[in-house]
Amino acid sequence: MSPAYNFASGPARLPDAVLERAHDTLLLRGADGACALERPFSSPAFRATLERARQRLAALLDLPAGYRVLFLAGGAMQQFSMVPLNLLGPSRRAAYADSGYWAGRAIREARRFAEVAVVARYQGDTPLAAPPLENWRLPDDCAYCHITPNETGEGIAYPALPNTGAVPLVADATSCFLAAPLDISRFGLIYAGAQKNIGPAGLTVVIVREDLLQREARYAPAPYCYRQQLAENNTVNTPVGWAIELAALVFDWIAESGGLAAMAEANRRKAERLYHAIDTSGGFYRAPVAHGHRSPSNVRFQLTDERLTEPFLQQAEAAGLTHLRGHCHVGGLRASLYNAMPEAGVAALVAFMADFARRQG
Amino acid sequence: MSPAYNFASGPARLPDAVLERAHDTLLLRGADGACALERPFSSPAFRATLERARQRLAALLDLPAGYRVLFLAGGAMQQFSMVPLNLLGPSRRAAYADSGYWAGRAIREARRFAEVAVVARYQGDTPLAAPPLENWRLPDDCAYCHITPNETGEGIAYPALPNTGAVPLVADATSCFLAAPLDISRFGLIYAGAQKNIGPAGLTVVIVREDLLQREARYAPAPYCYRQQLAENNTVNTPVGWAIELAALVFDWIAESGGLAAMAEANRRKAERLYHAIDTSGGFYRAPVAHGHRSPSNVRFQLTDERLTEPFLQQAEAAGLTHLRGHCHVGGLRASLYNAMPEAGVAALVAFMADFARRQG
């Protein structure tokens, strides 16, 4: 393994132990002559993999009764249409909170299928802040309320979940899923693209409360219908078999590492260390997000002297600290600190930042 | 590698050389700190992979000018809705040929979005045969005509392509793609799930003629819009990065093995050998598909004494000849002979079949 630390926002670094386990077994063809990449979906081996992935995820999340889990091909973006196509039911209305770039894309896509009411907005001036949690006016006949609890691009995280009463809360949790314990009972539906804390790109986990499956998805293409996917055991469309297998390995790794509480504790330490380095840099670095709204997963920062951004990125990369460029819509710098980023990676970044500042000063 | 020969219809056996190359590089993190499973989509490394896969596929197919290639997350089933959602345009009508199980599923899904005219049907009595190629009455305002040139379940292949005149021909080529040279200029759009001759499951290749991209896909979810996928360089929805990388390795392997002409020649030899063994078994085995309509990719056969089917499957598996059970909707036996099945695998199967017959006799 290379000593480089890859801070990409996703597809992101996978745990070394998972990659090594995948490597060890990649060429192993079982008694049925198929290795993991060749597993037929009708085989008991594939069904066992799927069930193992489901059970391990349920155990990690302490999944309450009445929820179902899907492992769908594709990314979270697909859910931007799949959610309205499945959950609108007889209503045409849905509520969305606009917390930044990804919420904005979810809203744009939902508008093609629904009347969207934007019920809260993030504060876009520095310091940036998540949408306020009070005074959400959910429209009558509102089928659901969609939030993006962690904005990967802006580096904003909600300090708490909104209370939407009887309206099902739907969340794009792509960049915070499995980074900390999560009370699934707060959600009607929650989804997350795999390429942050779950596994390789091209897979999305969806957890849905069973009562929402009663809604009719008349205009959904078959692979987009949650109910049909559950009825056909996740195989309406070709499942991404090996990615599901890798996800099961990641779930094992999380459990062996102490579970979600241990992840949250390590993630808190990593984020605190990096934000502290930024805040105590004497203004050389700046974090544009307000305290209490700063994402522990995606740490955004800037150089006060913006002319130093490119030299910083070049020198960091030469030092093995890679993919630190900010999201293209917001610029600046970003370090994504998902579960697989070791604390040593953050220590190396903080040391490099101090050294870079010293050399400029 | 295990000596077992896996005859699954898909996800199918991958070439040993490709698996070994993937294994050799799985843990290699590049200068940017990311291995193939971690490659960010915004990285030059990912764009290079995508471009390499496109160029190698275009070279194999001798792709004519005016066609575009997409590598989409998900399986071919997704195309059953994606095709009508993109190609219907102002028309509501499309023509479909019903050649068996998979064509039937494509028709069922298309009916949710289009007025479907079934313009030809396969012969369902033994001997089975592909739809006749004459007298297709394409409706006025017909947006396209969809065929399934190889039916994976029934083991039926069209002896030639139909002539649909000015109506764009659309094909689900999942189980015959890259098994032989193909004149892409005959098609308006052709698609193939990866898990037969392209790579691992969860990826679908779509090749579309540029003029068809002008049609408006008003009701398509964003990841389902060919035009948008092409405009955003295949990344509207999270691409299955590693599967694309593996596909590029498979394309290399085909080229190094002599290209599609060499694949076709080997596939012809393999299929002939197996069908010959069936036809000369003195009625012990039977192939239900008519000569000239027999799929070289999916060889269907039966034991005349059906009580021997389960013992055959059990003993074959014990002999390392696996996944020979026929499609659940048609029963019997099936050996899928995609590019990665070596001739030695067919030889072993033929020897086992003769031995099994001898032992019963």
From TrEMBL, chains A, B:
<keyword id="KW-0664">Pyridoxine biosynthesis</keyword>
<dbReference type="GO" id="GO:0008615">
    <property type="term" value="P:pyridoxine biosynthetic process"/>
</dbReference>
<feature type="domain" description="Aminotransferase class V">
    <location>
        <begin position="5"/>
        <end position="349"/>
    </location>
</feature>
<feature type="binding site">
    <location>
        <position position="102"/>
    </location>
    <ligand>
        <name>pyridoxal 5'-phosphate</name>
    </ligand>
</feature>
<dbReference type="InterPro" id="IPR020578">
    <property type="entry name" value="Aminotrans_V_PyrdxlP_BS"/>
</dbReference>
<keyword id="KW-0028">Amino-acid biosynthesis</keyword>
<feature type="binding site">
    <location>
        <position position="195"/>
    </location>
    <ligand>
        <name>pyridoxal 5'-phosphate</name>
    </ligand>
</feature>
<dbReference type="GO" id="GO:0004648">
    <property type="term" value="F:O-phospho-L-serine:2-oxoglutarate aminotransferase activity"/>
</dbReference>
<dbReference type="InterPro" id="IPR015422">
    <property type="entry name" value="PyrdxlP-dep_Trfase_small"/>
</dbReference>
<feature type="binding site">
    <location>
        <begin position="237"/>
        <end position="238"/>
    </location>
    <ligand>
        <name>pyridoxal 5'-phosphate</name>
    </ligand>
</feature>
<feature type="modified residue" description="N6-(pyridoxal phosphate)lysine">
    <location>
        <position position="196"/>
    </location>
</feature>
<comment type="function">
    <text>Catalyzes the reversible conversion of 3-phosphohydroxypyruvate to phosphoserine and of 3-hydroxy-2-oxo-4-phosphonooxybutanoate to phosphohydroxythreonine.</text>
</comment>
<protein>
    <recommendedName>
        <fullName>Phosphoserine aminotransferase</fullName>
        <ecNumber>2.6.1.52</ecNumber>
    </recommendedName>
</protein>
<dbReference type="InterPro" id="IPR015424">
    <property type="entry name" value="PyrdxlP-dep_Trfase"/>
</dbReference>
<dbReference type="GO" id="GO:0005737">
    <property type="term" value="C:cytoplasm"/>
</dbReference>
<keyword id="KW-0718">Serine biosynthesis</keyword>
<dbReference type="InterPro" id="IPR015421">
    <property type="entry name" value="PyrdxlP-dep_Trfase_major"/>
</dbReference>
<dbReference type="InterPro" id="IPR022278">
    <property type="entry name" value="Pser_aminoTfrase"/>
</dbReference>
<comment type="pathway">
    <text>Amino-acid biosynthesis; L-serine biosynthesis; L-serine from 3-phospho-D-glycerate: step 2/3.</text>
</comment>
<dbReference type="GO" id="GO:0030170">
    <property type="term" value="F:pyridoxal phosphate binding"/>
</dbReference>
<dbReference type="GO" id="GO:0006564">
    <property type="term" value="P:L-serine biosynthetic process"/>
</dbReference>
<comment type="subunit">
    <text>Homodimer.</text>
</comment>
<dbReference type="InterPro" id="IPR000192">
    <property type="entry name" value="Aminotrans_V_dom"/>
</dbReference>
<feature type="binding site">
    <location>
        <position position="152"/>
    </location>
    <ligand>
        <name>pyridoxal 5'-phosphate</name>
    </ligand>
</feature>
<keyword id="KW-0663">Pyridoxal phosphate</keyword>
<comment type="pathway">
    <text>Cofactor biosynthesis; pyridoxine 5'-phosphate biosynthesis; pyridoxine 5'-phosphate from D-erythrose 4-phosphate: step 3/5.</text>
</comment>
<keyword id="KW-0963">Cytoplasm</keyword>
<feature type="binding site">
    <location>
        <position position="9"/>
    </location>
    <ligand>
        <name>L-glutamate</name>
    </ligand>
</feature>
<keyword id="KW-0032">Aminotransferase</keyword>
<keyword id="KW-0808">Transferase</keyword>
<feature type="binding site">
    <location>
        <position position="172"/>
    </location>
    <ligand>
        <name>pyridoxal 5'-phosphate</name>
    </ligand>
</feature>
<comment type="similarity">
    <text>Belongs to the class-V pyridoxal-phosphate-dependent aminotransferase family. SerC subfamily.</text>
</comment>
<dbReference type="Pfam" id="PF00266">
    <property type="entry name" value="Aminotran_5"/>
</dbReference>
